Amino acid sequence: MRRRSKLNYSRYGYLFCLPFVLAFLVFSLYPILYTAFIGFTDMKGVVPKTPHILDDPLENFKNLLFENELFRMSLMNTALIWIVNFIPQLGLALLLTAWFTNKRLKLRGQGAFKILFYMPNIITAGTIAVLFSSLFAYPIGPINSMYQMFGWSNEAINFLQDKTTARGIVAFIQFWMWYGHTMLILIAGVLGINPAIYEAAAIDGANGFQTFFRITLPSLRTIMLFTLITSMIGGLQMFDIPQLFLAGQPDNSTYTATMFIYSQAFRGSYLYNRAAAASMILFVIAAVLSAFLFYLMRDRDAARLKREERRIRKAAKAASQGGVTHA
Amino acid sequence: MHSQLRKSNAIALNINRTIIYIVCIFLALLSIAPFWIMFVNATRSTSEIQQGLAILPSGHLMRNLEILLDKSFDPITGFVNSFIIAAGATLCAVYFSSLTAYGLVAYNWKLRQPFFTFIILVMLIPAQASAVGFYQFMYKLGWTNNHLPLILPAIASPAIVFFMRQYLIGALSFEVVESARVDGSGEFATFNRIILPIMMPAVATQAIFVFVANWNNLFMPLILLTQKEKYTLPIMVSLLRGDIYRTEYGSIYLGLSLTAIPLFIIYFLLSRYIIEGVALGSVKE
Questions:
Q1: pLDDT for B22-43, tens place per residue?
Q2: B256, closest residue in chain A (CA to CA)
Q3: CA angle, B25 as apex, B23 and B29 as ends, to 5°?
Q4: B260 contacts in A (CB within 8 Å)?
Q5: Which domains does chain A have, with CATH numbers?
Q6: Do B9 and B91 reside in the same domain of the chain?
Q7: Which of A105, A237, A268, A323 is deepest in the core (most CB within 10 A)?
Q8: Which value does ipTM take for this structure?
Q9: Do A28 and B156 touch (CB under 8 A)?
């Protein structure tokens, strides 16, 4: 009876998912395919003519991968800024997680700390970028004032003229905006660990360090990988902060891959084709990372259930054939 | 001897705790300080700002506001535009994601599993990857300088469908659906009148995140919107970096403050739900 009613209703499943599918086809799939197509063409100029596929369809890609110094630099900057932001971000988030979940410490004010640590994440990245460029202003700005107040420097320092400092500040802003987020996810992960394991460890006399490194850290492996990959994909899209902080300066040291796409396509020479090819290269990188994440998050229970089902069916089949299946 | 050991343990614990509090308070100050300087400097004149740091506000707020509004900065228009886009995208995202999630959980259809797999697969496609094609497509439709291309794509929000599905699996009882059917309720009406209210906690959490993400979005609006009267707040922030404000430090800080205030209000009203939501979702938008 129930099965039959489900059969009758199944068309609603298709119907209810239809708006999603339509919006996806129109606003995501078609633009991606179109972008891929543009990558093989000669489309450029403010009002481009009908695009034609180039004599050498891979010209744009070859240019980007083998000749274009700026694109290579933008990829390198993106990677560098991401790494310099992520390692301390994960480190600090882990440390705070260890402290906040430690029952022996009984820290007070955790709620307030969590709210404050997460706060920068919610504020417009563009606002934060312009704010930091004002804070580091030269010759007179809050950071310079602070340096003089504490006597660290007698002369005004032009922080944003130095490549390493500029990159460092962009990485710091990313770190500062995201460590609270990462911490909250890790804490949720720790709270998901079976408390019986911790009790057993406590009975066996494990100290804080041992508990953290032998139980907490291994249990968080999947969540940490999840954070790593989502952060990497987020890092590939890094745009707002470097764009509004220094617009890629000094010497293109904070020029990221997404800024490359933006400025090639929508500024200056309007090289839509080259920007499209660069988008596809980023897309492939993101796709590889996503595939890995997908593998990681696959529904393990469902897979196990399916395996189990198959085993039972096989056993039933064997039994129905009348064979002796077990010795 | 035993009690001595316990005592030294307690001392070590206290030292630990003190160090941890110092680190946490330092980080908390690090979160607050830049915004504090921003708000304080928004009330100070250029010459005051040039004299150095201050902890307390001064009295030049109105003067800074005058200078700010005198130039191209129009916070009301920016606020309205940002609000229309963020609210529209939020409604589309949470409503259609709930509908899709219900379609995935409540009905048994042939392509259900493949469709869910597909949703996970496309969850992490960056918007930047399709920006060039998206812009050309919208340009041909005559939809640049329009809010719709920033709202309608939210109908297909894979990450939110994923979250809603997880929630619905735990919250949906088929008895409710069956009894609605017995009462003669249509499937679509059942979703709107019975299922959507059940999903409200999840809808509210996701709505906050979608709203904030769209409010803060810079890349897509920057590409699509070229007319001043369509600008969103994040685009206006980029105007503050321009030459016209070169020496008007106070007004720059005020402009920044104006873009941040709505978010601070949202955050302090809803911080509990936001903190919980981050932990629950652990899916970045």
A1: 999 999 999 999 999 889 888 8
A2: A127
A3: 115
A4: 123-124, 127
A5: 53-123+170-297 (1.10.3720.10)
A6: no
A7: A237
A8: 0.86
A9: yes
